[in-house]
Design the sequence.
């Protein structure tokens, strides 16, 4: 039987950054605890959770994980809010919608949440910013995003 003794094992590096294919090479998380509201039926940025990452390789993938709380309100009808992940101000993911349907009554407050996961291939080593955008689909009052977070994981390519 043989015994192998090692004082230190060093990973193969590329400019000081571990960039093994399929390995997570960096993680960035931004948590927004401030709520933001809109009556807009066009997408607006929830700027409290904008997250930026600089990929170490043009072959890297970025796993974007977003979650948020949503409040949709109407005085007596249906209410809904949609959220979507944007990259540098342009739509990236499909939208996710939180809806409440009512059959009469004096008002509707929907308290929901949304989660979106998206695997992006930015093909750059420049900084990339991922953002949460939201809009009012239905409802006559402010629709609100709260306690949102975006987590970015670079996966070596």
Sequence:
């Amino acid at each position: 039987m043989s015994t192998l003794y090692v004082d230190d094992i060093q990973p193969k590096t590329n400019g000081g950054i571990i960039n093994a294919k399929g390995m997570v090479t960096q993680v960035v998380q931004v948590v927004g605890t401030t709520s933001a509201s809109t009556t807009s039926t066009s997408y607006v940025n929830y700027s409290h959770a904008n997250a930026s990452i600089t990929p170490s390789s043009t072959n890297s993938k970025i796993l974007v994980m977003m979650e948020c709380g949503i409040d949709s309100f109407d005085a007596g009808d249906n209410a809904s809010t949609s959220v979507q992940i944007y990259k540098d101000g342009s739509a990236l993911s499909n939208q996710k919608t939180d809806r409440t349907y009512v059959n009469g009554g004096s008002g509707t407050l929907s308290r929901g949440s949304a989660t979106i996961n998206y695997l992006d291939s930015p093909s750059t080593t420049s900084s990339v910013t991922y953002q949460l955008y939201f809009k009012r689909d239905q409802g006559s009052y402010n629709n609100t995003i709260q306690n949102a977070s975006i987590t970015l994981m670079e996966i070596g390519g």
Observations:
- Residues 39 and 50 are 21 Å apart (CA to CA).
- The two ends are 38 Å apart (CA to CA).
